Amino acid sequence: MITDKFGQQVYSEQDLCDFYFKNPDLQLHSVLVENPITFSRDLDLENIPNLIHYQLENISVEQFDDKCRNNWFLPKEYMDMDIAQFVLDQCTTDAELQRAGKELLMFQERDMFVLLKYLKYLVDTMRQNNIVWGVGRGSSVASFVLFLLGVHRINSLYYDLSIEEFLK
């Protein structure tokens, strides 16, 4: 196994065979392999459900980031949700509506609505599984939208924190 320039673990065919035979009941969902053509030809993929292999491409880190930016493993109900409306529905005062609206415009300008949907999914999943996470750290607590989504528990309006600290 090696780590590529994107920080992903890349497995050889031998690595995957060893791994699979040591853990035959494990369901692999995705894996990056060095030579997907050889891997597909030599190994019976019917016996490895949900295995997806990717071919390495000669692309820059920036191109890789752009390619992955819209590749979210997100349930359809969250991908289809109107995250802006959900956030605005959580507001109870005019000041909250104004702050949430301002932040949502900033998130939209940065094409980050999918990220907000993913964070909503993550918080819901953690709550359903009784996973405890922190009250908030760093500049993320400056976001009132993240507070409304439940990512942290610091009300940035109450503490008069500027959203510019988060979205610099």
Q: Give the mean pLDDT.
A: 80
Fraction of residues in H or I helices: 40-55%
Number of contiguous helices: 8
What general form does the structure show?
A: elongated
User: How many domain regions?
Assistant: 2
Radius of gyration: 21 Å
Which structural category fits the helices and strands? mainly alpha
Strand elements, count = 4
Cα end-to-end separation: 37 Å
Order of helices and strands: EEHEHEHHHHHH
Largest sheet: 4 strands, mixed
Percentage of residues in DSSP E strands: 5-15%
| Strand arrangement across the biggest beta sheet | 1-2-3-4
Structure description:
The chain is mainly alpha-helical. It has 2 domains: 2-69, no CATH class; 76-165, no CATH class. The chain contains 8 helices and 4 strands. It has helices spanning 13-22, 36-42, 61-69, 76-79, 83-89, 94-109, 113-128, 144-149; strands at 2-3, 9-11, 31-33, 53-54. The chain has a 4-stranded mixed β-sheet. The longest helix is centred in the middle third of the chain and has 16 residues, at 94-109. The protein is elongated and about 60 Å long. The two termini are 37 Å apart. Mean pLDDT is 80; it is low at 37-42 and 47-54.
